[in-house]
Request: fold
Amino acid sequence: MKTIIDLQIQIFLLVAIGFFLTRKNWVNDTTQKQMVDIILYVLLPCTIFRSFLSIEMTAELIKKTAVVGIVATAMQFCYLFVNRFLYRRFERGRALLMKYATICTNSAFIGLPIIEAVMGAEALVYASIALIPTRVAMWTAGLSLFTETDRKSMVRTLALHPCILAVFLGFLFMGTGWSLPAALEQTTLGLSRCTTSLSMIMVGCILGKVELRKVFDWSVLYYSLIRLLALPFFFLAVLYIFQADKMTVGVTVLTAAMPAGSTTAMLAKKYDQDTEYASKLVCVSTLLSLVTIPLFSILLQGGTFH
Reply:
């Protein structure tokens, strides 16, 4: 419990720093975009890659990561299914954004650092596998909500994404027992240690752009209830019924508990959708997740469902 409380205080402080930086206009839109690129294309891949280096490849590990991959894939199909009826009452443009934000969460940007902090470095191996179906859904079903997808471009984007490459490199080094030269070892270690702090500061920067008094409306709260509470509780109950192991439950439930992905607002802007509403989905769900994620962390760490 003390670890969870300390982690929550740390997250709030880091988010507050980002919020302050944006409100003081020390971080602008261009800076934020550059920070997102640094996190997604440099820091997270280093964190993912390093998570494999301290783990010994065994038949048991392969079996467990395969189970996590299957569960994560099933979760994506579940999102596609519930999207068919959860948002029917809403105007088409808003429903489109809510559907995308249900499929595509911030499971990499926020999820990986949180999972590492709550469950340890080993959990990153499993979380990295769970991330693959999310990436596939993001660039297939997710993107198809905005436009027709080009299969060739989609495959190239997936195959060359640094986070996906980091998973394959991690498995390669773990399986062969290779090690990095000392200079690269220290460089990747230093970069990976920055991930949580910069990710949470970036969340604060996103929140700092919006007048919080104007972002709350019932449809955004409805989406947040579905995304942050209903879906992860559903997966928690199902995995408990099937008596899944603790690592599988922890990784997949925390992944399911993540807020709307920041790409929701980016794609809304690119394809002339309601960018303001997309930003509300991201900001409100991110803000509320600062309460709901610790709730699930406490449940999982406390062993309530094991």
